[in-house]
Amino acid sequence: SKLFLLTGIPGQEGVHPWISIPFCLVYVISIVGNSVILFIIKTDLNLHKPMYIFLSMLAVTDLGLSISTITPTTLGIFLFNSREISLDACFAQLFFIHSLQCIESSVLLLMAFDRFIAICNPLRYASILTLPRIAKMGLVCVLRGVAVILPLPFLLKQFRYCRSNVLSHSYCLHQDVMKLACSDIRVNYIYGLFITFFTVGLDSLLILLSYVMILKTVLSITSHTECLRALNTCVSHLCAVLLFYTPQMGLPVIHRFGNSSSHLLQILLSYIALLVPPLMNPIVYRVKTKHLRARIIRVLVK
């Protein structure tokens, strides 16, 4: 078969038009929220600092993730019940989704490094995080995301698909497409595990390490107020980390140990993993970052 069939939420086909309403809302809020953050950071020279540059990288990645997940397929299924997708379009979509997730993971690691330098080595902060260095770090994030995911579409293209051509989500994911192949998928399986450990696994470990060091430094500060102020600068980043990594860690566990009853949970968790970070990151940063909040209010009042 030269086509895959996408699935919305199984068993809920009758209410798909209603389900499209929250999806549309999530999409609009994600696009507007991240665009506002980019606009504010670009136009306010006081926000041209490492922390906000990393935040704008996160916003660009979130915009890409929202657009590549929702626009081509998800809204098509829920609004118009158009389930068919060609193999090439499917491989292109999974490439963008997975590489943007890898890039987001890298950006969250850079943001942890930023907080680590700001708290543990504040005197050298400006000399370590210079603009050219930040640009190089951003480029490395993009190159790593693209390089590790690029083999996937080519590996999948080699397979014959003679089993059912029905995918279990409203967008294409590697592990989902791989299961439909009637060829030997061991290479894809092993490479998929390697990607998980090399990106999400390694990044989350390094983020944890940064926070252990940050906590060690903060607890050595004698002033209680200073201690709280230092920790407060990390709250929004910690929220972003939890929003991104919790469903990422939960999905493989459900894939491995879940039974048929957890299939719906698996689908819901995969929607949460892809749609919630782009929706919540702008809200979290707006609420927790004083300068950003003040600047947004000023623009709205104008």
TrEMBL record:
Keywords annotated in UniProt:
Cell membrane, G-protein coupled receptor, Membrane, Olfaction, Receptor, Sensory transduction, Transducer, Transmembrane, Transmembrane helix
Compartment(s): Cell membrane; Membrane
List the PROSITE patterns hit by this protein, alphabetically: G_PROTEIN_RECEP_F1_1, G_PROTEIN_RECEP_F1_2
Can you give the residue ranges of the G-protein coupled receptors family 1 profile domain?
33-285
Q: Name one GO molecular function term.
A: olfactory receptor activity
Q: Has the keyword Ligase been applied to this entry?
A: no
Membrane disposition: Multi-pass membrane protein
- Name its GO BP terms in alphabetical order: cellular response to lipid
Against SUPFAM superfamilies, the record matches this protein to: Family A G protein-coupled receptor-like
TM spans, by residue?
Answer: 20-41, 53-79, 91-113, 134-156, 189-215, 227-245, 265-285
A Gene Ontology cellular component where this protein is annotated is: plasma membrane
Entry similarity comment: Belongs to the G-protein coupled receptor 1 family.
Report the protein name in the record: Olfactory receptor
